[in-house]
Amino acid sequence: MSQISWKCLAWVFNHATARRVNLLVLIRIADHVNDNGDAFPSVATLTEETGYAKKRVYQATATLEAAGELQIERRTGRSNVYRVPTKDRFTPPPPSNVLGRKGSRDAKKDDNDHGKPF
């Protein structure tokens, strides 16, 4: 395991907001990170390592990408390139409720708010 892989795993355990399936997929991707900060596991590899179906792995990577917890460079005919954000390469997630947490304060907007703090 490379030094960068350890950094990625540490970032995942300390900063990721993903849960359950998404978290396991993110951990497995972080474990594959090379010295350049890139990971190339195929969906078949992630399916085998997580025990989840291919469709579920695709859903997890899409959710993680939308949340800003995973960057994906899609390549035709080859494995995608995955990049897990670390302290040096962090891209903040979009301000939305993409990880599926219901009842989040940010997910609900009050029409009577008009920008007032209280």
Q: In the CATH hierarchy, what is the class?
A: Mainly Alpha
Strand adjacency order, main sheet: 1-2
Low-confidence stretches: 102-118
SSE order, one letter for each helix or strand:
HHHHEE
Query: How many angstroms does the end-to-end distance come to?
Result: 50 Å
> Which radius of gyration do the C-alpha atoms yield?
16 Å
What is the helix tally?
4
Tally of extended strands? 2
CATH topology: Arc Repressor Mutant, subunit A
If you average the pLDDT, what whole number results?
76
Overall geometric form: globular
Largest sheet: 2 strands, antiparallel
Number of domains: 1
Task: Tell me what the CATH architecture is.
Answer: Orthogonal Bundle
- Please name the fourth-level CATH homologous superfamily: Winged helix-like DNA-binding domain superfamily/Winged helix DNA-binding domain
Structural class from helices and strands? mainly alpha
The percent range for helix content is: 25-40%
Beta-strand percent range: 5-15%
